[in-house]
Each structure stands twice: as structure tokens, then as C-alpha cells.
Amino acid sequence: MSRQEAAPGGSAAIGAALYGLATRAVRRLPRDMSLTSAATLATLERTGPRRITDLAAVEGVTQPAMTALVRVMEESGLVERRGDVADKRVTLVCLTEAGASYVRTRRQAGVHAFERLIGELSGDEVEALVAALPALKHLAELESRDRDGPKR
Question: Are 18 and 47 spatial neighbours (Cβ–Cβ below 8 Å)?
């Protein structure tokens, strides 16, 4: 019996619940920078230095838009450009310590927000979430792999 047969509509219901939770979480984030800028910093933190063209593809924007975004983040001290030791023709965008600190602070604020909400759940609901952790972590790994594409 397939997973779909075991729980008809289960995948759709789970997908809808996760999507709703994710969109609400994004709406609660501070508006101190664009979502694309924050996502780009998180991508660099997760995957390491990248070419501007790679970042544009991963974040779903044009290369000129990513170039402008990187320039602004560079002026803010969040990223820097470095030459690629493997290919001297290539410039990579790298996260600075200030950029890494920003990503950690933003992530921790999100964790704390969810901790507060989880504190309002019943014991059985918390246990259900704990039981679902391995599947949720695997889902996040699958999404990152599909989204981030190959590393340089």
C-alpha cells in the first residue's frame, strides 16, 4: 500500500498546513531588509560562497537584480566579493562575519517565536511534533537540495 493510499489527502493536508505556517512565519519577520536579501544571506550561510549567477538562479531573480542586491549588501558589510582560487576569472560572493551574525540573529528570533507558540500547545500536541521531527528535518533537507542546486 502506498503512502497516498494509507492516508488519502494526507500529503495535501500536510502540505497546506506547512505552507500556511511558513507564510505566516515569513510575515512575522522583521522588515529591516528585503526577503530576497535575507534569503540570499541564508543561502550563502548554508552553501558557502557562490557566483552571482548561481545566487540569481537559486533566489529566482535576474542576474542584474542580484548584482544590485549584492552591491547593497556589500556596502552594508554583510557580504564581500573574493576571487575564486580554482578559477581566477571568477568572483565569488562570500558572507562576512556581520552577515553570518545577521543570519544567526534572524534565525534565533524565528526559533524563539515558534518556541512561544509551541508553549501554548497541549502535551499531546508537543509529543506529536517531537515524533514528527525526523520527517520535518528530512523534508527540509530535500527542499534545500532541490532549491540550492549544485555548490561551486
Answer: no
